[in-house]
Specification:
Elements (H helix, E strand, L loop, with lengths): L37 E5 L25 E5 L2 H6 L2 E3 L4 E7 L12 H4 L6 E8 L2 E8 L11 E2 L4 E4 L10 E8 L2 E3 L29 E8 L5 H6 L6 E2 L5 E8 L6 E8 L2 E9 L6 E8 L9 E11 L2 E12 L3
Parallel strand pairs: 12-18
Antiparallel strand pairs: 1-2, 2-9, 3-8, 4-5, 4-7, 5-6, 6-9, 9-10, 11-13, 13-16, 14-15, 14-17, 17-18
Length: 325
C-alpha cells in the first residue's frame, strides 16, 4: 500500500473561514474512474494502537495513516496528466509548490522531512472543516490562497511529491485540526461505512482484497522470502532471469492477477493468471530467462494488477536495474 506511504504532514496555515458551516459533502477529489483508471488503496487508520485497520476492519491502511489514498494505475498515467479536484466548495487556505516529483527512497527520505505532503492544497469549508490534497505534481498548482472554489474545480495534477513512491492523491479531512475518516466521520469504532455514505455524495465502493507488495527476483522465490522481503532484488546482471511476483490477500475465485514487465526496449512479458482456489494470502510469479546476448542494461519496471470481473482492485509496481556487473 504505497509503501512509505503518504504520511500526513503539518500543513495548517491560518486563513479566514468561509460562511459555510455544515459538514461538507465530498465528491471524488481526482478526475478518474474508480476500478478503471484508479482505485482506493489506503484508508484512515482507525486502530488507536500500534496496529492498523481501515473503516471496514480490513487491512487497507497503515499505522497512523491519516487520509484516503486514490492511486493511478501507472506512472505513465501520471505523465499524461490527471487532475486533482476540489472535493467540496470552500476557500483555498494554503498552497505549497516546488517539491520535486521523485519517489521516496532511504537515500532521499531525510530531505522530505517536514514536507511529507509534498505539493499540496488545503481548502477551508467553514466551522472548522478542512480538506487537504497531497502529492501533487510540481508546478501544477492551479489555485491560490483566498480563492473560492466549487466541487470539481481543478486544483492541480496528480504527482509524486513528498512521502510517496506511487502517483496518487492523498485526501485528508479535518475538523478543528483533528483528522476525520470521511467513511466514518463520527468515529464509532464499528466495522463498516456510516449511514448515508459518511461524508461522500457517492461513496466509493470497498474491496476487502488487495495486494501487499510486488517485487523482482532472479528465480521463483519461496513464500516466506516474499513475505519477509528477502526475495526482492533491485539490481542484477544481464545474464540473470527476471521474475516478477505479487503478494495478494483475500482474493476470490475468478480474480485475475496480471504480471507485466518492460525495459529499455519495451515489454518483455505479460501474463494473466486466474485464481481458481485462492487462500487468505497467496503469491504468484512469472518471468523470463535472459536472452542469449543478455538483457539490455538499464531500468526495468513491473506491474502486478489484481482485477475482479474486469474491475481493478489493486496495483503494485516494482523496479530493477540491469547493470554490467
Amino acid at each position: 500500500m504505497p509503501g512509505l506511504r503518504a504520511a500526513f504532514c503539518t500543513f495548517l496555515l491560518s486563513a479566514a473561514a468561509p460562511a459555510v458551516a455544515e459538514m461538507p459533502r465530498l465528491s471524488l477529489p481526482i478526475d478518474c474512474a474508480l476500478g478503471e483508471t484508479c482505485y482506493v488503496e489506503d484508508y484512515v487508520d482507525t486502530d488507536p494502537g500500534s496496529g492498523q485497520r481501515d473503516y471496514a476492519c480490513g487491512l487497507k491502511s497503515r499505522d497512523g495513516h491519516r487520509g484516503t489514498d486514490i492511486v493511478l494505475l501507472s506512472f505513465e498515467a501520471m505523465d499524461q496528466g490527471v487532475r486533482v479536484l476540489a472535493a467540496a466548495p470552500g476557500i483555498v487556505a494554503a498552497t505549497r509548490d516546488g517539491v520535486t516529483d521523485v519517489a521516496v527512497t532511504p537515500d532521499n527520505r531525510a530531505g522530505i522531512e517536514g514536507r511529507e505532503c509534498g505539493n499540496a492544497v488545503r481548502i477551508d469549508h467553514g466551522d472548522g472543516w478542512q480538506t487537504l490534497y497531497c502529492h501533487m505534481k510540481q508546478g501544477s498548482i492551479a489555485v491560490e490562497k483566498g480563492q473560492k472554489v466549487q466541487s470539481g474545480d481543478i486544483l492541480g495534477l496528480v504527482g509524486l511529491s513528498g512521502l510517496t513512491n506511487v502517483p496518487h492523491v492523498h485526501l485528508g479531512v479535518l475538523k478543528d485540526g483533528q483528522i476525520v475518516d470521511p467513511f466514518q466521520p463520527q468515529a464509532t469504532d464499528t466495522c463498516g461505512m456510516a449511514s448515508g455514505g459518511g461524508m461522500w455524495r457517492d461513496a466509493p465502493g470497498y474491496d476487502r482484497a488487495g495486494l501487499f507488495t510486488a517485487g523482482f527476483s532472479t528465480a521463483v522465490p519461496g513464500f516466506d522470502a516474499v513475505k519477509s522481503g528477502a526475495a526482492r532484488v533491485r539490481e542484477t546482471a544481464p545474464d540473470q532471469a527476471l521474475v516478477l511476483y505479487g503478494h495478494a490477500f483475500y482474493a476470490k475465485p475468478g480474480d485475475v492477477l496480471t504480471l507485466s514487465a518492460a525495459g529499455p526496449k519495451g515489454e518483455i512479458f505479460r501474463q494473466e493468471i486466474t485464481l481458481e482456489n485462492p487462500q487468505a494470502q497467496l503469491f504468484r510469479a512469472f518471468g523470463r530467462h535472459a536472452p542469449e546476448d543478455g538483457w539490455p542494461q538499464g531500468d526495468y519496471r513491473g506491474y502486478v494488477r489484481l482485477t475482479r470481473d474486469g474491475r481493478v482492485i489493486a496495483v503494485r509496481h516494482a523496479d530493477i536495474a540491469v547493470t554490467s556487473r
